[in-house]
Amino acid sequence: MLVSAKEMLNKAREGHYAVGQFNINNLEWTKAILLTAQEQNSPVILGVSEGAGKYMGGYDAVVGMVNGLIKNLGITVPVALHLDHGSFEGAKACINAGFSSVMFDGSHYPIEENIQKTTALVNACDVLGISLEAEVGSIGGEEDGVVGAGECADPAECKMIADLGVTMLAAGIGNIHGKYPANWAGLSFDTLAAVKEQVGDMPLVLHGGTGIPEDMIKKAISLGVAKINVNTECQLAFAAATRKYIEEGKDLQGKGFDPRKLLAPGFEAIKATVKEKMELFGSVGKA
Ligand code: 13P
């Protein structure tokens, strides 16, 4: 059964570790992440961008697939199904479809509009027991065609949004989606500390988990980050393993073209990546 991310994130913040959000794209991704979470006895958050939701056939298809896998694979660790960087309409659609958690990314709106739209969703999510992530200060890089510059959030604005009663808050601290450029300045821990000071115990979310050095991940967790999003790293691992299989000509040997064989190395690569991240984030054994 899907659960809200609230309890797992509050436990993570209190226990000084973070729960990984791993974005899903298809059945292989979802199965790999769920099985790894179960093997590692770790809570997990499955992230679905609006683009990935559409790709998988729509939000009902995603909910059906995830619920079915949880049941058929005997997954007993806490799993939240979460909309990643949702629009206001997207968040409402996912709430109706049966997601257990949604993000409304109003960071590109003026703060008044972000507050107004986030408030409407706080009320809807409260009634249904769904966790809600809000964002202040856009995360850099490109995701689903939305490009941000890696801003640092205004801590006072973070407090205004946190006070609305959201479950968790994503605040830009110089992080970006995708690979980090060679001249990246690193995370702004001054911003993170200032945000934490303003929002108190609210679990903070670190987007753009791909490629952040281990010491920065650990420091971010020590400063209140309880959820870390990883997407690109699983994609890169999947692509590299699939490339290797084909370059070695394995798809041409016997029934190597069978999708169950062709996609197996990529599946294993996602599992290995997720395991590595769960160990780094400290969520192993915390289910
Ligand atoms: P990466 O693709 O950089 O890992 O970022 C993922 C993310 O933040 C999803 O919201």
Itemize the secondary structure elements and their pairings.
Layout: H1 6-15, E1 19-23, H2 27-39, E2 44-49, H3 50-55, H4 59-72, E3 79-86, H5 88-97, E4 101-104, H6 111-128, E5 131-136, E6 141-143, E7 146-148, H7 155-162, E8 168-171, H8 189-199, E9 204-206, H9 214-222, E10 225-230, H10 232-247, H11 259-262, H12 264-281
Parallel strand pairs: 1-2, 1-10, 2-3, 3-4, 4-5, 5-8, 8-9, 9-10
Antiparallel strand pairs: 6-7
Bound molecules: 1,3-dihydroxyacetonephosphate.
Give short descriptive properties of this protein.
TIM Barrel, globular, two-stranded antiparallel ribbon, 8-stranded parallel β-barrel, binds 1,3-dihydroxyacetonephosphate, 12 helices, alpha/beta, 287 residues, single chain
Can you characterise this structure?
The chain has helices spanning 6-15, 27-39, 50-55, 59-72, 88-97, 111-128, 155-162, 189-199, 214-222, 232-247, 259-262, 264-281; strands at residues 19-23, 44-49, 79-86, 101-104, 131-136, 141-143, 146-148, 168-171, 204-206, 225-230. The protein has 12 helices and 10 strands. The protein is globular, with a radius of gyration of 18 Å. The protein has a single domain (6-281), classed as Aldolase class I (TIM Barrel, Alpha-Beta Barrel). The model has no long low-confidence stretch (mean pLDDT 95). The two termini are 14 Å apart. The longest helix is centred in the middle third of the chain and has 18 residues, at 111-128. It has 287 residues and is of the alpha/beta class. 48% of the residues lie in helices and 17% in strands. The strands form 2 sheets. An 8-stranded parallel beta barrel has the order 1-2-3-4-5-8-9-10, surrounded by 9 helices. Strands 6-7 form a two-stranded antiparallel sheet. The structure holds 1,3-dihydroxyacetonephosphate (13P). 1,3-dihydroxyacetonephosphate binds at residues 23, 47, 84-85, 177-178, 207-210, 229-233.
